[in-house]
Specification:
Number of strands of chain A: 11
Shape of chain A: globular
Largest interface: A-B, 28 and 30 residues
Radius of gyration of chain A: 14 Å
Helix content of chain B: under 10%
Largest sheet of chain B: 7 strands, mixed
Helix content of chain A: under 10%
Shape of chain B: globular
Oligomer: heterodimer
Distance between the termini of chain A: 41 Å
Chain lengths: 115, 114
């Protein structure tokens, strides 16, 4: 099966940089995704890493190391609106027919941004 | 372009009853997946449908079932409800469910089992 670990809660101040780590155990790994979910809202896609390295999208960056089964989400210039839950998710091989793939989510990291 | 629509938004049932939840994906999206979200448990994968076929299935009992129609709309059914089934049920769609494709989530159906 698949398992993911990420911290349950992180607190940071506005304007700071925060890193949310994610380690995973899986077979047939394809890639690592990150999703953001505000309280009462739907999860929204942030990034997807299939290859080692850093992907940057505005204030958010995501990193993957396949050899270490590890990734992180980096949020810069934190704003109050960034207070939300952040989920890493592993895309891995798996399907009823032996093919296909499925997305397994971690339990989420609640980020609190303070003034 | 309309987003993913889930109905109903809230539902209250009693133990032993059954429930059907509906999901209309974004137009043109053929992959629909379902997740159960409970506090502290994250999003647990239920199943994924593509072109009316169940392509993937999570580790849930047989009381949880689903289907997809030719217009890609999907329903999930939970029979013989238990208290532990109380959760937010999220539906997500993507074009083909391929690697790297982002999922677009609906706002979910909040199910309370009394």
């Amino acid at each position: 099966g698949q398992s993911l670990e990420q911290p349950s809660e992180v607190t940071a101040v506005e304007g700071a940089i925060v890193q949310i780590n994610c380690t995973y155990q899986t077979s047939g790994f394809y890639g690592l995704s990150w999703y953001q979910q505000h309280d009462g809202g739907a999860p929204t896609f942030l990034s997807y890493n299939a290859l080692d390295g850093l992907e940057e999208t505005g204030r958010f960056s995501s990193f993957l190391s396949r050899s270490d089964s590890y990734g992180y989400l980096l949020l810069q210039e934190l704003q109050m609106k960034d207070s939300a839950s952040y989920f890493c998710a592993v895309r891995a091989r798996g399907g009823l027919t032996g093919g296909g793939n499925k997305l397994t989510f971690g339990t989420g990291t609640q980020l609190k941004v303070e003034l | 372009k309309a987003g993913v629509t889930q109905t109903p938004r809230y539902l209250i049932k009693t133990r032993g009853q059954q429930v059907t939840l509906s999901c209309s994906p974004i137009s043109g999206h053929r992959s629909v997946s379902w997740y159960q979200q409970t506090p502290g448990q994250g999003l647990q994968f239920l199943f994924e449908y593509f072109s009316e076929t169940q392509r993937n299935k999570g580790n849930f009992p047989g009381r949880f079932s689903g289907r997809q129609f030719s217009n890609s709309r999907s329903e999930m059914n939970v029979s013989t409800l238990e208290l532990g089934d109380s959760a937010l049920y999220l539906c997500a769609s993507s074009f083909r469910g391929n690697l790297g494709e982002k999922l677009f989530f609906g706002s979910g159906t909040q199910l309370s089992v009394l």
